[in-house]
């Protein structure tokens, strides 16, 4: 990436110094929580570059967090194009070892939900494995269930196919990407059962170009590893890598020396790279070099998109107060490897357990889900269920399941119209039971004067994990223990795909 230096032999003006201080503060504050967001915020200190950043309406109207907390979804696209649909520089394609702009699509191969607490609590980042097999809201391109990474590309293609050829290619590209963003955000939101307040979309080019600015980057591996597909060839221990090697480091998903290397190991590689890059930005010279700062900002122009409602100034003020806060990165577990109807390899997951983990991490700062009591409240409470989905028999299956948990069986009805989101409402005297159910399902319980006394009304929407109840395999998250394993553990203690892994966001993590 060419360097963009200012005029030589010119003394910095007061404006230059103000910009430099502001940009360093913005970038350093954000580096404390997620390096992929560095360039997305850095531009706020250099206003005349703001016009080049892609902003999106994909989050408009969505539910938000309360209490000052923020959940920020970081989406890393597998696109071989920049944010404007233009080819990337040739050196990036050379580093990818995966073809040119005609290869690849719009899979969201990196999905990290960053949680900034309202107070001074711990900062958490949760990685969602890209091949998790989930419901795809709205059935983009006619696909109702698929890998979570596919929501973006399927919705993108569906919108692209519907647009008139008379529209400019640039407009078609941006319109289709908006559809992809909405679909991916909605899919993640419904899977995890938490609000998404903001998002940052990053293309492959950003990984490479940020690494170009801050290289060399220090990483650590537990063993020698090599992979001809990604170009990875690393030795055991601590080592410094350049930008091209960094691409191989984050993209490797095979190991010629280890047949047990999985895609979840690749996810932990990405987390380790983020930690290493944050360290490099904190302690290297990139944040003190005007030319490097401008190069980071140029990366943002070409490879970053953010939601239009992202108040970057307020966010950076918040992030700056968290510079010394602990950052912990988690990788969500899977239940088993499986295949879909087309024979594609997918990750089978326990949706209830995943939601419970995320809820516990974001609310308690702990990886251990809070046990949910199953005993009946002191006053018998009736559970009415309204089925607002197209799954016949789902309400009865749910009623039977929660009846075993001490709630009295009530009415089972079908809604007049389908609903996207599940809700819980309760009448007088049903507060405890409603909140017990809400904790179990990771929903919000709301008092209602239209619901009878001592009654809870659960309306089942499209976001409800229907398969777990219709198949009879539903289990309580409290009854399904999830093992938390150090992401850097080795040997017999090394993480399995079914483990929830935890990585400290400090020093240089040594990973598989």
From TrEMBL:
Residues 488-512 are annotated as: Disordered. Residues 488-498 have a biased composition (Low complexity). Residues 382-464 form the LytR/CpsA/Psr regulator C-terminal domain. It holds the Pfam family LytR_cpsA_psr. Residues 108-280 form the Cell envelope-related transcriptional attenuator domain. InterPro entries: LytR/CpsA/Psr_C, LytR/CpsA/Psr_CW_biosynth, LytR_CpsA_psr. It comes from the Bacteria. Belongs to the LytR/CpsA/Psr (LCP) family. This is LytR family transcriptional attenuator. It comes from Mycolicibacterium moriokaense.
